[in-house]
Amino acid sequence: MEAPSTRLPIFFIFLLLSVSSPIFIQKSLADGVTPDEAKQLRDEVREMFYHAFNGYMKHAFPLDELRPLSCEGEDSLGGYALTLIDSLDTLALLGDREQFAASVEWIGKNLRFDINKTVSIFETTIRVLGGLLSAHLIASDHTTGMKVASYENQLLDLAEDLARRLLPAFDTPTGIPFGSVNLLYGVDEHESKITSTAGGGTLTLEFGVLSRLTDDPIFEQVTKNAVRGLWARRSKLNLVGAHINVFTGEWTQKDAGIGTSIDSFYEYLLKAYLLFGDEEYLFIFQEAYGAAMHYLFNDPWYVEVNMDSAALVWPLFNSLQAFWPGLQVLAGDIDPAIRTHTAFFSVWKRYGFTPEGFNLATLSVQHGQKSYPLRPELIESTYWLYKATRNPRYLDAGRDMVASLQYGARCPCGYCHISDVEFHKQEDHMESFFLAETVKYLWLLFDLAAGPDNLVENGPYKYVFSTEGHLLPATPQISLVREHCSYLGAFCKSRVESESDAINNATSVEEAKHSFSEGTTSTETPPSSDFDELTSTTGLIRGFCPGLTHGQKFRMIYIGSTSTDDESVTETEAAQRHPTVVVTDHNSGHSTSDEKNVDNSQEHREEDVMNDPHPN
Question: Which catalytic residues are annotated (predicted)?
């Protein structure tokens, strides 16, 4: 009999990982990694950060990124001090008040986005927008211990300005955004209509946080529509492809996997639920995760398959897959995370780094994918697994990773890309994410072992890490935006008036309950804009109807080809092919005819929603 998987409810595991719990804290460290050595490793990682950061500030700032071999700078994204922005919350995490404050002040005074630059929607969102929002939330809050006295929301204003310049990319028939946009002129008429799944589905955290901070729902709604547009075009197996046409909705690359071009789509489904409490994201994640584990997991590795047939396409481990065990920790699926991390780390130990591609058939580095561009994903998963299990082997792994970086990647002014992991050949480039993620997760790992004293472990909030490693706190303004009408004393947005005033000014719980039941939803209708057609009905979630599927509750749709051959498929086979669980109220006593009536009433209700911008 197979042993049951160690699986915990998602919210439970998130709480355990976010709070220093005596249940998880153990004193044992790795063999050879004493508490004193853990402190030394933490301090060594700190020195690694400043070696690279100071090299950037001295030789490359205000250009985007550092060339650590030649000690020069280069503009790689938009020409707006990218590495400094990406490093802000790492400075705060390390407790460097002076450098953090000086950097915030410089950016607030000098950064502008009204420039004729065409930028990646994905990279600009996760690196720049995320960096600005995270730093704003730290610099504006005295409870973080890093409040900047002279700060007056300059970073938030910059973030809003940047996001509005990205909005034209979402003006597509599917709601899935273009891959690039010009910050001054919008989308070029010759812009490619093909984008990646990760590019269209990894925007919800940053845009969602911005909506809550600015009280403007447009940012959250366009990114949620993008996720819905991708998920609506999933296959019958609940798999998504790698690239899609944003106008036609046709998949141009049907390889399904958890790595390149898809990875963070899965990540942001779960993290959007953890940060915002929106069950729609959880529902999609559960469906997508179940399909990934069923069709892509070849224990302990993951492969790429055709999204329609599940036929094997590519037996390849690529380095971007290494985030997956960390995501599984957040989902509470620990056992497969441990096995997969062990497999992935064996590749690191073999070469000293993880190559971009490792062929599982030949057990060798994939031709043309021999580089290691200082990626953080395996280090990130090592941190999360140590935090969840306190198993000392993850400290051993972290120590090996530090040694590899120090002896193989360290350059005169920073840390170099490794162009060939077999010969440890260095390349003159250092991505900004090395400072935003790679050293951040290493430092957090050893600080946790030495006795944590940092913003994440001991700060005033629980934090969700963006895919760029930026700290997004679960503050009431961000995480309880929909709670203002559910109980007395809950957080209420300043611009919400109608029913929220009645509830928060109620003299009794019964009055509040009455106001809630009679009032409208707390989500405001977005201001009139070019994007109203995209967001006016899909961004509003109303009451729950007993007897409907979870997909019907959230007005989800399925777009895919149909075949008469499916008519002979049994219910069991259909459930295995398309494992959407029908959530019903078992106490409702609906008969089959009743369910048909419910479906009909649902159609009328959707028509009412289309006609009424404020349905109850």
Answer: 123 (proton donor), 263, 356 (proton donor), 377
Question: Is 377 a catalytic site residue?
Answer: yes
- Is 6 within 8 Å of 334 (Cβ atoms)? yes
Per-residue model confidence as pLDDT tens digits over 366-415? 999 999 999 999 999 999 999 999 999 999 999 999 999 999 999 999 99
The Cα–Cα gap between 238 and 578 comes to 6
Contact at 8 Å (CB) between 90 and 68? no
Here the tokens at position 284 are 């999609």
Which is catalytic among the residues 96, 255, 263, 468? 263
Is 342 annotated among the ligand-binding residues? no
Q: Is 105:471 a contact under the CB 8 Å cutoff?
A: no
**Domains (ranges, CATH) in the chain?**
35-473 (1.50.10.10)
Percent above pLDDT 90 for the chain: 71
Asked if 49 contacts 411 with a C-beta cutoff of 8 angstroms, the reply is no
356, 427, 428, 437: which one is catalytic? Answer: 356
Nearest to 614 by CA among 513, 543, 530: 543
CA distance 87 to 267: 22
Active-site entry in 96, 377, 431, 447 = 377
The token pair that represents 370 in the structure block: 């021999």
pLDDT of residue 33: 79
CA distance 375 to 70: 21
- Which amino acid is residue 601, in one-letter code? S
Burial class (CB within 10 angstroms; exposed 0-12, middle 13-18, buried 19+) of 2: exposed
Main-chain phi, psi angles of 302, to 5 degrees: -125, 140
Average pLDDT over residues 582-610: 37
Alpha helix (H) ranges present in 239-297? 263-276, 279-295
> Going by C-beta distance under 8 Å and a sequence separation of 6 or more, which residues neighbour residue 614?
520, 521, 525
Q: Which residue has the tokens 């090996």?
A: 400
User: Can you give the pLDDT at residue 35?
Assistant: 86
304 catalytic? Reply is: no
User: Among all chains, which residue has been given the structure tokens 């972290």?
Assistant: 398
Summarize pLDDT for 74-132 with one digit per residue, the tens: 999 999 999 999 999 999 999 999 999 999 999 999 999 999 999 999 999 999 999 99
Amino acid at 451: G
Q: pLDDT by residue (tens digit) across 256-312? A: 999 999 999 999 999 999 999 999 999 999 999 999 999 999 999 999 999 999 999
Is 607 one of the catalytic residues? no
Catalytic residue check, 606: no
**Which of the residues 89, 123, 216, 468 is marked catalytic?**
123
For the chain, state the CA radius of gyration. 24
Sequence-separated (6 or more) residues with CB below 8 Å from residue 201: 226, 227, 230, 264, 265, 268, 269
